[in-house]
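re: the backbone from monday

yeah here it is again, tokenized this time
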């Protein structure tokens, strides 16, 4: 959809096209001296608007009030906006979204890895830390260390996002940033009894 702006004495105004003018070519709307005087637009013109906002420099700001600049060379109205900080409420909402999304992605990754080795969840894996079974205890210790490393990485990423150092990552990016789980290898036959959960 094309936006048109009323231009009068080198100033632009966000006024709608007069009735019956929609669909006319832009070049016709530059000079309305041909119109019926009763319409009261003979000394006015409507120019096409062109948005030329640059990308926002960080996720913690937004576009504010618009700035209309008449470009007489190109016969267009250049539309830009002031860049203003997010409100306290908007910032809190965005921070909450980022935190909850990261939390969900990391927890799912932890649980998936634990389940890939027969545990119900990462919590289940870590509960074997005091097991008398050497294999289960070693896996639990490795799981605890890996869980800590994953959360440390996620929290460091969150701090960088909040500081505006990095953009909000996609879910796949979050997962790719997490360290790999290294499952311990025990001598054959050691700790081979069956576990439940």
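seq for it, each position gets an aa:
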């Amino acid at each position: 959809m094309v936006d048109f702006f009323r231009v009068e004495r080198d100033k632009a105004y966000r006024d709608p096209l007069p009735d019956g003018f929609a669909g006319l070519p832009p070049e016709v709307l530059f000079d309305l001296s041909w119109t019926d005087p009763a319409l009261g637009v003979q000394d006015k013109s409507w120019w096409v608007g062109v948005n030329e906002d640059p990308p926002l420099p960080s996720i913690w700001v937004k576009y504010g009030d618009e700035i209309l600049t008449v470009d007489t060379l190109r016969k267009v109205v250049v539309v830009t906006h002031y860049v203003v900080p997010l409100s306290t409420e908007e910032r809190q909402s965005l921070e909450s979204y980022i935190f909850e999304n990261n939390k969900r992605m990391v927890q799912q990754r932890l649980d998936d890895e634990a389940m890939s080795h027969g545990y119900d969840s990462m919590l289940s894996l870590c509960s074997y830390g005091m097991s008398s079974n050497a294999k289960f205890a070693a896996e639990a210790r490795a799981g605890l260390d890996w869980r800590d490393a994953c959360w440390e990485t996620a929290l460091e990423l969150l701090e960088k996002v909040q500081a505006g150092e990095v953009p909000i990552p996609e879910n796949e990016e979050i997962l790719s940033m997490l360290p790999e789980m290294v499952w311990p290898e025990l001598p054959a036959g050691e700790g081979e009894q069956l576990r439940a959960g």
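Residues 4-85 form one domain. The first strand starts at residue 4 and ends at 8.
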